[in-house]
Amino acid sequence: MNATSPLSARTLVPLRSPDTVMAQLREHFGEHGVISGDDGSWSVVFDIGTATASRQGGGIAFSVEARDDTSLAYLQWSVAEHVCEFAPGETPEIAWDGGTQPGAPLPYFREMRVLRATQVTPAMRRLTLGGEKLDRFAHDGLHVRLLLAPKPGITPVWPVMAADGRQAWPDGERPVARVYTIRRIDVEAGEVDIDFVLHEGDEMPGAVFGRDARAGDVVGMTGPGGGTLPPAPHHLFFGDETALPAISRMLEELPEKARASAFIEIADPSERQELALRPGIELEWLSREGRPAGTTTLLADRLRALDPGHWQAGTYVWAGCEQTAARSIRSFLKSERRMPRQQYLVAAYWRRGQAGEVED
Fold this sequence. Notes:
- The chain is built from 6 helices and 19 strands.
- β15 (about 235-240), α4 (about 245-255) and β16 form a beta-alpha-beta unit.
- It has 3 domains: about 5-100, TATA-Binding Protein (2-Layer Sandwich); about 110-225, Translation factors (Elongation Factor Tu (Ef-tu), domain 3); about 235-350, Nucleotide-binding domain of ferredoxin-NADP reductase (FNR) module (Rossmann fold).
- It is an alpha+beta fold.
- α5 runs parallel beside α6.
- The strands form 4 sheets. Strands 2-3-4-5-1-6 form a 6-stranded antiparallel sheet, covered by helices on one side. A 6-stranded antiparallel beta barrel has the order 7-8-13-12-9-14.
């Protein structure tokens, strides 16, 4: 695709309260991109492309532009999702001119097959998945959603493009979705590595798939997502084993002279991994010594105990862990360290006693 000719799509959405929706969209998108313009006509620049909105008649005219079909589809999805969210009681009619045609495969979906499995540590198993045209998964996001069969022996249906830019599902068994980090990607070979924490219990579909998967098994994959790590003079990473793949990859992809400190909670010393660490990067393992995951305060305690040398001007903090620990870390950074919101990201990767994705 010519770098000077971005892909585009547009739509006119009739609404009962277009001014209210415009204002709410502008505020929300302003938290994730750079806004310009006024209440009646504005534009927002994201890392993956641009969205514009303007009042027109009894509705809002939107246009989106991006350099690739995945980014364009993400922008269409985001506009449609938030218009519906900010127009309660309405069923907005959204039909895009341009972009992926309704009913076509999602540009950010790939069907993958298990190629091989490796036991990294007693509780971490790595699956190598094979697929085609994976170049878009190598940038602008570390994470993917794996679409897993809801039950053994069931072949799920895969999502397609809806007219409003979101996902539509054909008739049949829908898969179960779980978010994972691409630990390694080899675009030329058509391979990605995904690390699975082998939680106990058959009610954990991701862990069960990671444990039982064999060569030839099929899984869906959408993505990438999760953004990228912003530049900073010093990065601080905190996470338990569920965040270990993400932290490992971010450490490996830091600029050559970057400085970083990583603190990773694991069950016991047998779960330590050999990571490729350059000079200027320190790594500390925090062992639960047999205590159940999600029951300790190791990460928050270590954060509070950091010496002043870790807190340079512009330090960026990234954390991924159990929900209670994530809230404690976020509270400390916000209320006690009084860090600007753009200098940290704290994600609740899981919640003790609950399967599935966590909204926090």
